[in-house]
Amino acid sequence: MSFMLTCPNCGKRQVGEFTFRGYFKSRPQQSDDFASWTSYVYFNKNKIGKQWEWWNHASGCQRWFIVDRDSAKSTDHQSVWFENRKTLEHE
Fold first, then answer.
1. Which pTM was predicted?
2. Is the pLDDT of residue 1 over 90?
């Protein structure tokens, strides 16, 4: 499936220019127990619908950013730098 993503730096581009790295989730603290880290690394939600995702503009500026994307439609999304993720509406 092909769709367009908007790089916060380069603008709208074909998804083939980007590398997907998974959905964004809060990282456990270094002092957290083994179960917390196991859950963080291995247990992903893989949900259908709106979620935050990590993307890299591999064929462009090579920067990492967060995309608020509906995985069912692959059309509605908002792209922001990691530092600006609080501007996204859902968690």
1. 0.78
2. no
